[in-house]
Amino acid sequence: MRTVYLDHSATTPVHPRVLEAMLPYYQGEYGNASSLHRLGRNARLAIDQAREKVAGALNARPDDIYFTSGGTEGDNLAIKGTAYALRDRGDHIITSRIEHEAVLNTCRYLEKDGFKVSYLPVDRYGMVPEDALEQAITDRTILISIMHANNEVGTIQSIARMGALARERGIAFHTDAVQSVGKIAVDVEDLQVDLLAISGHKFYGPKGVGALYIRRGKKIHPLVHGGHHENWKRAGTENVPGIVGLAAALEICMSEMEETAGREARLRDALQRGIQEKIEAVRINGHPTQRLPGSLSVCFEALEGEALILGLDLKGIAASTGSACSSGSLEPSHVLKAMDIPVEIAHGSARFTLGRDNTQQEIDFVLEVLPDVVERLRSMSPVGLSKGDGKT
User: Fold this and answer.
1) Of 31, 55, 321, 381, which cross-links 40 as Cys (Cβ 3.0–4.6 Å)?
2) Residue of 342, 329, 270, 267 lying closest to 299 (CA atoms)
């Protein structure tokens, strides 16, 4: 059975050239980067070169890049590390209601430790109103954390303007850029951010490796204590193959970004048009233009998203109902709820996220299969369609 993979926001396949770059560091070049002998020096050189590549992609200084195990650790280090380092200056943190759980649950943890957190609302497109951010700032605010692009609906926030506001007020600004880096241009100077987290497996690199940008001079309290690794910010022997793979993947994505983004956007638009033409009572979620090129979130009225995803899987189509980290939850998406989408409609959400290898033939196949799956599920549903076609 053919497989059509439309879940690239959950993870991406490792690029063949990335795997090729990593293999030597599992085999002949297996040294510990802290060792003084030749194998150790070779490993250290590989890490240094990877750091330079990641920094170049983000327009950052190499010394401001710290390797982690992925986006979740990066977000935790940025938020907890900043909160504890600046606790003598204040105890207030600002974030949004549509953040990834890596941010939301970290903020909830800090609330239990005495910090105060403001969770900003979003509009119908998933955009954080800038006036809401400004109004939430107090003289006790020490950190703002707003994601760059949403993992469920693909909406891209106006981070540069928020970053400028934070800098003007002397507040540390963090952005979870896990979904945006490798897909669209990300420049830490243009965005005016102080901390930015990325994860390799979102852009054709290996799982279990990421990076955190920390602007020089920003105080961070380390979460993991031990040796001198990552300039005392993150103790533990470095994952040399993973770090090499992350840098190689990012380098490839940067070189192909314009072409890949254009192709993904065209295919996404074709999928969206086909769904709206072939299926009644659907709702397109997220910003109509300010969104990731390969991201499409759709709510199908009068069915359950989980059943739809399983029905598509039986046909060889891989998609999701939202964040992969929330899979198995019976609750509707917190992102869609924050966008004021009715719960009964949010339950019928599906996320289709395209990648570099998807083709028009695959989109055509999805549009052949999807209407029948939707019709079958609706025929068994006790909930009827609302009046009108529901297309938005």
Assistant:
1) 31
2) 342
Identify the active-site residue in 107, 253, 299, 325.
Answer: 325
Of the candidates 290, 54, 279, the one whose C-alpha atom is nearest the C-alpha of residue 158 is 290
Amino acid at 18: V
Instruction: Note the pLDDT tens digit of each residue in 54-88.
Output: 999 999 999 999 999 999 999 999 999 999 999 99
For the question of residue 107 being annotated catalytic, the response is no
For 201-247, the DSSP string reads GGTTS-TT-EEEEE-TT-----SS-SSSGGGGTS-S---HHHHHHHH
Closest CA to 69 of 193, 185, 182, 229: 229
From-to residues of CATH 3.40.640.10 in the chain = 16-252
Q: Summarize pLDDT for 160-174 with one digit per residue, the tens.
A: 999 999 999 999 999
Would you identify the CATH topology of the domain 4-10+258-379?
Aspartate Aminotransferase, domain 1 (3.90.1150)
Q: Which fold has domain 16-252?
A: Aspartate Aminotransferase; domain 2 (3.40.640)
Q: At how many degrees (to 10) do helices 38-58 and 240-278 cross?
A: 30
